[in-house]
Design a protein that fits this description.
The structure holds two protein chains of two kinds. Chain A has one helix at 349-352; strands spanning 13-26, 32-37, 42-46, 55-58, 64-70, 78-83, 88-94, 99-100, 106-108, 116-122, 127-132, 137-141, 147-151, 166-171, 177-182, 186-191, 196-202, 207-210, 216-219, 223-226, 232-238, 250-257, 262-272, 274-280, 286-292, 297-303, 311-312, 316-320, 324-330, 335-348. By secondary structure, chain A is mainly β. Chain B has eleven helices and 16 strands. The two termini of chain B are 43 Å apart. Classes of the chains: A mainly beta, B alpha/beta.
Chain lengths: 353, 427
């Protein structure tokens, strides 16, 4: 008898969506989840439901790049939606978190000049930080949208004088520090109160410029995330690319003791792809990353030991069709929710181990 | 001494005259270039020149000339208004949007071939490849046709620095004598400096000796063709050596260099302008590499932004120097990119419906020709194939595409027999 081939792992649940999903916000209280992306629409679904059905909430012509839930511990949560038209819009979340108001309760049309790339709510959801293609980091009052602080500490042009971009922003758990990162692999740590730059981390391996073969750049830091204790910063993207047609380089995450501006570990894998998002387990001992590229979609888990050697290989690797842009970690039952190309997927770690 | 002023561009047409007078030692007084250099008033008598810009790898029509806003194929960018009423182009081209009335766009290319090499051959020659006959690249034909035959400068200079996608222009059946000067390792021809150990007088004496020995060898011998080619090559080499400053962009005022920017494409386009101004009939600038199978939008944000800035400056510069009205400009790729945005946020190869840009001499400024359907999947109106496009470019450059070369016993027209020039884009 021929050997029965081991079937590749499959997600526990999936739901289809048009285009690529670039935005994901999960309410940890009830599992209600909002997603948005290239179709311009925002949809909602219950991650705990037996069957998923994406319910369209909002339309729109421009890409939805990021969204965040505010006040999930209160009775009046809101969803903030960022788009490529430079706008931010606030919507009331109603019906127990299942839907949002048809019209925004507040809009900042020119939150950034150019695309809004990312946003994060922090300081107990009292503040909102965004990054955009005007190469600015902006902090707003999360309730009224008023601009509180902004900085322009990222270079507008790459060293080769092409246009750059800030792709990602994260806030420390204590709400004091913002980390933003750009196309050329520079991470800026910024103190929100003192308005001072605290540290600058350089990750040149995450930026490829091929001046000999193609005179083009590729890569950049696609995601930064603080560890739960705020001491470490994960900086994710793709390592040096051999073929700048695409994501043809190794998945790569660098872990920094950011206060010392010291890289303590490199988490890499030979899978050819970019890590678009990473999430920490609540004890800070695991880091999950997801993305896609030449090798297809991938989900990786690394065990984090601050005393570990420089290079750490993943303890779990799942390959699948697709390309993940956003990841959420559901601690209670160790599930990962991945949003990306043509839909969402739910992965249960217990079924993968 | 080399006759160039140290800052040639500040001399405008006088600079070229200075070059020609010095480099050619008065021997070309009756040549077209010299005559054309006399006065801006005689501009209509200037010989045509061609600037050929090659976007290697395949630029996306959606992120340039044929945006499809609000469609699943449209991508994240939006169209912006141009100075042509009712015509929008991608927001990545803000500077060219204000110069759209000087540009000519074909939105209905349909060329079928989606493999890089074969498609590049097709678009570079206007023909599908034949086993029995190698056709010359379009730039080679243009250079041959536009050459005055009396310049010491090359007829065709091709600048392509990146190694990927580099394709040396094939002279095909026209032979190696029509090869362009390829600038590949640097934007300056290699080995054109006189050795330091050789003073100018000794160098000239050696050249004279070589020439006299050649003449002696050829005396009373039949079949001079190879020797003539050798002489011609020597002459071109001498011209390059004398024109070495042409390739030195530091000779250009800082303001000019700043406007073109510091990217390789900017520097190469500035060099192209210097070469055109000096009278090189055909200059090609290749810019790699647009093959954005993954992360298409980030790539095009970088590449189109650079193209917009550089090409707008180049257009203005050519116009202000009186060169645009005699220079036929074409911006081609081997194909466009797919309407479908793939899982890796990329677009793949697509040749069924795509766009190209034309400008300058022979083209109708402000013309936007052809139309694709709402998703950019198919050509809706006025399809143009590679042969048609080649015939159109030849016509714009003042060359009859039905003209024949005699290859052995076979008459070969410059453009393929079935090609029909697009009259609507010709001035």
């Amino acid at each position: 008898m021929p050997d029965e081939k081991k079937k590749p792992p499959t997600p526990t649940m999936t739901a289809k969506a048009e285009g690529s999903l670039l935005a994901l916000a999960l309410d940890p209280r009830n599992g209600m989840t909002f997603v948005g992306g290239s179709s311009g629409a925002v949809s909602a679904f219950d991650v705990n439901a037996d069957a998923w059905e994406l319910q369209s909430q909002l339309g729109g012509e421009r890409y939805v790049s990021a969204c965040a839930l505010l006040g999930t511990s209160s009775q009046k949560p809101q969803l903030v939606v960022a788009r490529y038209d430079g706008s931010l819009a606030w919507y009331d979340v109603v019906d127990g978190g299942a839907t949002v108001s048809a019209k925004p309760t507040r809009t900042v049309a020119d939150a950034h000049r150019g695309w809004v790339r990312d946003l994060v709510a922090f300081d107990g959801d009292r503040k909102l930080a965004t990054v955009g293609d005007d190469m600015l980091v902006k902090v707003r009052d999360a309730r009224d949208g008023k601009l509180l602080v902004e900085h322009d500490k990222h270079a507008k042009l790459t060293p080769q004088e092409y246009i750059s971009a800030i792709y990602t922003i994260a806030a420390s758990p204590d709400g004091r520090t913002l980390a933003s990162a750009d196309r050329v692999g520079v991470v800026v740590l910024f103190d929100v109160e003192s308005k001072k730059e605290l540290a600058r981390l350089n990750c040149p391996e995450l930026y490829t410029f091929d001046g000999e073969k193609r005179d083009r750049s590729f890569g950049g830091v696609r995601c930064v995330r603080f560890s739960p204790d705020g001491k470490l910063l994960a900086v994710a993207g793709i390592g040096q690319i051999t073929n700048v047609d695409g994501f043809v380089g190794p998945c790569r995450v660098e872990i920094f003791d950011w206060r010392k501006a010291k890289r303590i570990a490199v988490l890499d894998d030979d899978h050819k792809g970019v890590m678009n998002d990473v999430v920490w387990s609540s004890d800070g001992k695991e880091l999950f990353g997801a993305g896609g590229g030449d090798g297809g979609g991938v989900l990786l888990r690394w065990s984090i030991d601050p005393a570990a050697k420089e290079n750490i290989k993943p303890s779990l690797k799942v390959k699948f069709n697709g390309h993940t842009h956003r990841l959420a970690w559901i601690e209670a039952d160790r599930r990962l929710l991945a949003a990306g190309f043509e839909g969402v997927q739910l992965w249960e770690l217990s079924s993968l181990a | 001494m080399f006759p160039f002023p140290s800052n040639p561009s500040s001399f405008g047409l006088v600079r070229r005259r200075g070059f020609l007078q010095g480099a050619l030692a008065g021997s070309v007084a009756s040549c077209g270039f010299a005559a054309a250099a006399e006065s801006k008033k005689s501009v209509s008598k200037k010989p045509r020149q061609v600037l050929f810009i090659w976007l290697g790898g395949g630029a996306s029509q959606f992120e340039t000339w044929d945006p499809k806003p609000g469609r699943p194929t449209g991508g994240p960018f939006v169209p912006i208004d141009t100075n042509l009423p009712g015509i929008g182009i991608c927001e990545l081209l803000p500077k060219l949007a204000t110069r759209m009335d000087q540009l000519t766009v074909i939105r209905s290319l349909s060329t079928a071939i989606t493999e890089h090499g074969v498609a590049a051959d097709l678009m570079s020659t206007g023909r599908t490849k034949e086993a029995s006959l190698v056709y010359p690249e379009l730039g080679v034909i243009l250079a041959k046709e536009l050459s005055t035959g009396c310049s010491s400068l090359p007829d065709y200079v091709s600048i392509f620095r990146t190694t990927e996608g580099r394709r040396r222009a094939d002279p095909g059946f026209l032979g190696a004598a029509h090869l362009p000067v390829h600038l590949e390792r640097s934007a300056r021809p290699e080995n054109i400096d006189r050795p330091e150990t050789l003073d100018a007088d000794l160098f000239a004496a050696r050249a004279d000796l070589r020439r006299r020995l050649s003449e002696g060898f050829l005396k009373d011998r039949a079949g001079r063709e190879s020797a003539d080619h050798y002489e011609s090559a020597q002459s071109r080499l001498a011209g390059l050596m004398e024109g070495a400053n042409l390739f030195d962009l530091e000779q250009e005022p800082a303001r000019e260099r700043e406007q073109y920017g510091r990217t390789p494409f900017g520097r190469h386009c500035l060099l192209a302008r210097r070469l055109l101004e000096a009278g090189v009939p055909v200059v090609k600038v290749a810019r790699g590499f647009w093959d954005s199978h993954h992360d298409n939008f980030e790539s095009h944000r970088e590449l189109v932004g650079d193209f917009d800035n550089v090409f707008a400056v180049l257009l203005d510069d050519l116009r202000e120097r009186g060169l645009l009205e005699t220079t036929t400009v074409m911006v081609l790729s081997e194909f466009g990119r797919t309407p479908k945005i793939n899982a890796q946020v990329g677009r793949d190869h697509y040749a069924a419906a795509w766009s190209c840009l034309l400008a300058g001499a022979g083209f109708k400024p402000g013309a936007v020709y052809g139309k694709t359907d709402k998703d950019g999947v198919e050509v809706a109106d006025d399809p143009v194939n590679a042969g048609d496009l080649a015939a159109t470019i030849l016509r714009a450059a003042g060359i009859d595409p039905t003209k024949h070369y005699q290859v052995g016993l076979r008459p070969v027209p410059l453009a393929t027999e079935t090609a029909v020039a697009v009259e609507d884009v010709l001035s």
